[in-house]
């Protein structure tokens, strides 16, 4: 299901690239029509504890575009590459109050706020523009579905957790506008381009 949605989005993105007059990104997700209005899925309200032991809600991201992902600090596989690539976006848009970043830890047992804080500092994050959050398994894993990201606790895989490495681009209305493989250099460059395109919508 998730793969098919992203494949469809990729096709739409490719088509959009061929249409030079089109500068709008697609809205990803199954839409429905209610009384003649097209309704797209959105990221629901949430509250999580961040790296500073402060409750962070979705309100923090109001009137911003943001990039979200799911990771854990001692991940031995895709996370280091994914987070280093997301750091490139953070560095490009640092101090731009129109843009934010949100990393959800899927290791609800180990990744307490002080662990997330240490991780963020070592990564090179030194302001509140990039938030790192933790929460209960039910809340974090339940929300990952809304971002169309696969997450699973699995003792058979390295690190004990399995997840996809998408960087998910969210607009002002909390709708998904793009998803990019955070381990792929070309995909990350596409993310940076699409962030610029999305910001143009709000000028």
TrEMBL record:
Keyword annotations of the record: Copper, Disulfide bond, Metal-binding
Domain Thioredoxin span(s) in chain numbering: 37-200
Coiled coil: none
GO molecular function: metal ion binding
Gene3D superfamilies, sorted: Glutaredoxin
Pfam families: SCO1-SenC
Residues that bind Cu cation: 75, 79, 163
Cysteines joined through disulfide linkages: 75-79
Keyword match Isomerase: no
Family: Belongs to the SCO1/2 family.
PANTHER family associated with the record: ELECTRON TRANSPORT PROTIN SCO1/SENC FAMILY MEMBER (PTHR12151), LINALOOL DEHYDRATASE_ISOMERASE DOMAIN-CONTAINING PROTEIN (PTHR12151:SF25)
UniProt-recorded name of the protein: Protein SCO1/2
């Amino acid at each position: 299901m998730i793969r098919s949605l992203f494949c469809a989005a990729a096709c739409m993105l490719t088509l959009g690239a061929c249409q030079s007059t089109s500068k709008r990104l697609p809205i990803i997700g199954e839409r429905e029509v209610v009384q003649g209005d097209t309704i797209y899925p959105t990221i629901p309200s949430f509250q999580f504890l961040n790296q500073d032991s402060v409750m962070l809600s979705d309100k923090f991201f109001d009137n911003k575009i943001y990039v979200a992902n799911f990771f854990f600090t001692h991940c031995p596989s895709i996370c280091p590459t994914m987070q280093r690539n997301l750091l490139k976006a953070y560095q490009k848009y640092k101090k731009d109050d129109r843009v934010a970043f949100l990393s959800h830890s899927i290791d609800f047992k180990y990744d307490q706020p002080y662990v997330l804080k240490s991780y963020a500092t070592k990564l090179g994050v030194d302001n509140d523009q990039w938030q790192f959050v933790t929460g209960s398994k039910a809340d974090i894993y339940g929300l990952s579905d809304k971002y169309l990201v696969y997450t699973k606790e699995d003792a058979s895989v390295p690190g004990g957790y399995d997840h996809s490495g998408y960087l998910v681009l969210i607009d002002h209305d909390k709708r998904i506008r793009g998803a990019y493989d955070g381990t792929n250099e070309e995909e990350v460059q596409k993310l940076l381009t699409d962030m610029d395109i999305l910001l143009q919508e709000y000028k």
